[in-house]
Amino acid sequence: MTAKHTLIALAMISLGILLALIGYFSGGRWLIIKDEDGFHVPSKQQLASQSYTLDAFTNIDIRNDYGDVEIIAAGSDYKLEIKALEEQDITYQIDNDTLFIETATKNKNRIEFGSGSWHSPSIKIYVPADNELSTLTINNNFGDIAIHQLHYQQLDLQQDYGDIMFEQTAGEKTTINQSFGDITFQQAINNGLTIDSEHGDIDMNGTLYGSSTITSSFGDTTLHLQNSKDDIGFDLTTSFGDITINDKEQGNTVSQVYNGEHQLTISSSNGDIDLSLK
């Protein structure tokens, strides 16, 4: 009897997926939201967009429960662009030289399922090109985070579900704690980097200065660094996986002693470590 019920359940799930795909490729869009009131379909089927020109600030503090976050250093203005299911979903203010952004309290613990361009709320922040920010604090629940061409003194990023991407950034101190998602650095410079990743790949192209520590539970760690091999110390360990340095396979543990300030420590529970140095 149990097997029969299982087969019926699987058949119903398969049918539901098939109908959803038919609807999607026929031009349909769908969205289901789980919030404090349970599961429901929103009455609005497109995002409310708002754009603001802001006064100058040197710090950013984001508390976001759903949606993507993007910070871009470009142009000459401080701007904020918000796309939300409701205009009141996301609030902001500038106080004590800090831009505060937060998801409205009534929408805490919201989770979204669906497809279509209108179902992806987002926060996009522009700062003038070549400006350096002091501190960035980002606490994001669901959604991707992307930071472009930004210089900053300190970043503290807490991410539950979603990918993280840095492009052409320079940071003096960067701390990342992520539960699920990939972390990517493209042409990034970090002076003091700490990453704690539970599930996801880490891919870095750039330069590491000072002391850097990467801890990964599940996922591969790939670093293509511009550092000279003779100018950095490293201690690499993986419990289940392979270690490769400059395309040469190593054991499960490999280290290089260096008396200078540039030190790299990578500890992986399940995943490969691939390190390339000049």
Structure commentary:
The structure is a single chain. With 278 residues, the protein is mainly β. Helices cover 9% and strands 61% of the residues. The protein has a 21-stranded mixed β-sheet that branches. The protein is flat. The termini are far apart. The model is unreliable at 24-30, 106-110 and 113-118 (pLDDT under 50).
Provide the succession of SSEs: HEEEEEEEEEEEEEEEEEEEEEEEE
Largest sheet: 21 strands, mixed
Ranges where pLDDT stays below 50 over 5 or more residues in a row are 24-30, 106-110, 113-118
Q: Output the radius of gyration.
A: 22 Å
Shape: flat
Class based on secondary structure composition and strand pairing: mainly beta
Helical amount: under 10%
Oligomer classification = single chain
- What's the average pLDDT? 85
* SS elements, strand count: 24
Percent of sequence in beta strands: over 45%
CA-to-CA gap between the ends?
63 Å
Task: Count every helix, treating DSSP H or I runs of 4 or more residues as helices.
Answer: 1
